[in-house]
Amino acid sequence: MKRSTIWILTVVMAIALLGLLAMQIMYLEKMVAMRNSQFSEIVMRSLYSVSTMLEQNETKYFLDQDLAEAEQMYTGISQNSFEFSDSHEATIDTTFNSEDPASLRPANRNTLKDLNDTYQHKQEILKQQYLYQKSLLNEVILTILNESSDRPIEERADSATVATYLRSELEFNGLSLPFEFAIVNRTTGIVYKTEGYSPLSQQDVYSQLLFPNDPKSKQNTLNIIFPNKSDYIFSSVKFLVPSLAFTFLLLGVFLYTISVAFKQKKLSEIKNDFINNMTHEFKTPISSISIAAQMLNDDSVRKSPEMLKHVSTVINDETKRLRFQVEKVLQLSLFDRKNATMRLEEEDANASIYNVINTFKLKVEKYGGHINANLDAEDPIIKVDRMHFTNVIFNLLDNAVKYRREDVAPELEVSTVNPDEDHIQITVADNGIGMKREDLKKIFERFYRVSTGDRHDVKGFGLGLAYVHKMIDLFGGSIRAESEFNKGSKFIITLPLYK
Question: Which pTM was predicted?
Answer without folding.
Answer: 0.45
